[in-house]
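Structure in, sequence out. Go:
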């Protein structure tokens, strides 16, 4: 390494980060001493110190006074839902992608809820479903109530990872539901179809029929996708103003 000190620090930081990312340096491992790194990499102590400082700022290592520098447990990186979309960024495609994700998650959640829901959990689902009807009857869009219904199902799974995932994706799911319900609100038969689909999901969960609950939830999202596919271009132009956001904040 014969470049300037800043560039050298970048190179050393990259080498050490790769050791950590690959698992060759695992969580809890101690980094080689400063003297050892100077000898191994052929750089100055200043460069090593700067490289370690960068790793510390990135949350990869932690200096412990009198003991050395240790590798931190691997952090979960923030989810970037804008990455690797293959250039597909229009509102219709985004919303349909959200529906696909919901179908996978909510189908399984409904099945687990059918097997695990308590009476309190069932009561919360029923209350959320009634709240959707009340919102629509009063002229509301029912978006928050719809989201609350599906969240109540997830919460009844007893799977904390699934619950946390849905909470993390909250704004993404809300955006998708907002556009979906805006489309369905244009036609009375759509509104009634959605109502019946929701009640079918709840009925299967209340009956403790896991397979029927999975099927009902997946069918609901399949129909939602079909209703969106049939929407005309005028609707999608208006939907641009509904703020479909695929960047989830933790």
């Amino acid at each position: 390494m014969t470049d300037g000190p800043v560039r050298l620090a970048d190179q050393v930081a990259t080498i050490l980060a790769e050791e950590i990312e690959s698992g060759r340096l695992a969580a809890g491992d101690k980094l080689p001493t400063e003297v050892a790194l100077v000898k191994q990499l052929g750089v100055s102590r200043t460069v090593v110190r700067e490289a370690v400082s960068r790793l510390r700022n990135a949350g990869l290592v932690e200096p412990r006074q009198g003991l050395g520098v240790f590798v931190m447990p691997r952090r979960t990186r923030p989810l970037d839902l804008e990455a690797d979309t293959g250039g597909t960024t229009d509102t219709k495609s985004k919303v349909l992608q959200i529906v696909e994700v919901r179908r996978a998650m909510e189908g399984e959640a409904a099945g687990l809820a059918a097997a695990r829901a308590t009476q309190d959990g069932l009561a919360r689902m029923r209350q959320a479903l009634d709240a959707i009807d009340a919102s629509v009857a009063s002229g509301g869009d029912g978006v928050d109530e719809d989201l609350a219904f599906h969240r109540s199902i997830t919460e009844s799974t007893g799977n904390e990872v699934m619950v946390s995932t849905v909470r993390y994706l909250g704004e993404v799911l809300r955006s998708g539901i907002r556009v979906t319900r805006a489309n369905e609100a244009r036609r009375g038969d759509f509104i009634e179809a959605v109502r019946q689909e929701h009640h079918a999901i709840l009925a299967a969960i209340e009956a403790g029929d896991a397979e029927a609950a999975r099927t009902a939830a997946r069918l609901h999202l399949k129909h939602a996708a079909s209703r969106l596919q049939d929407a005309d271009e005028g609707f999608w132009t208006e939907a641009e103003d509904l703020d479909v956001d695929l960047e989830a904040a933790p």
